[in-house]
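pinging the channel bc i need a second pair of eyes. not urgent but kinda urgent?? the chain im working w is below, pasted from the shared doc
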Amino acid sequence: MKSEFDLDKVIRKIPNYPKGGILFFDITSILTDPPAFTYCVDSMVEIYKDTGIAAVAGIESRGFIFSAPLAARLGIPLILVRKSGKLPGDKWRQNYQLEYGMEAVEIHKSDIPRGKEVLLIDDLIATGGTLSAAKTILEKGGAMVKKVFGVIGLTFLNFQTKLEGVEITTLISYSKESL
């Protein structure tokens, strides 16, 4: 893992998006920079290669981008955590609160490995609401969720409180909202 890589220089920060007063941390700039994306994937492999996780669960949609190469490199299943109404068949559903209303995520029941450890992945961890909802579903289905990964962590939004008891790893964290 190349610890000298400065991911902060690659992450695009957009003020007043999606509304005034919010600083948006945009990971698409990581995807257009092959060394940055390679650094992220290589770092994840190094962190999780010997942890015994049985599957990786990626949060729609940008979490898919980071979870898929990790699952492939580790040779373990990828579980999709989808927005409500996107999955056919028998699924678990969990609602969660947003600033401006309710949202829900779903996972196919048959995709959840009972009694096995699943790593949850998203591109950015803000309030932790989506990850917490996904964790609830996975545990309802019999999996164990002890680890959560995000490329970016916004600690100033206190995601740690919604994800208590879980080991949270990020490649870069921001303790305040500033350029």
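so The longest strand covers residues 144-154. and Helices lie at 28-31, 34-48, 62-74, 129-140, 159-162. — does that match what u expected or am i reading it wrong
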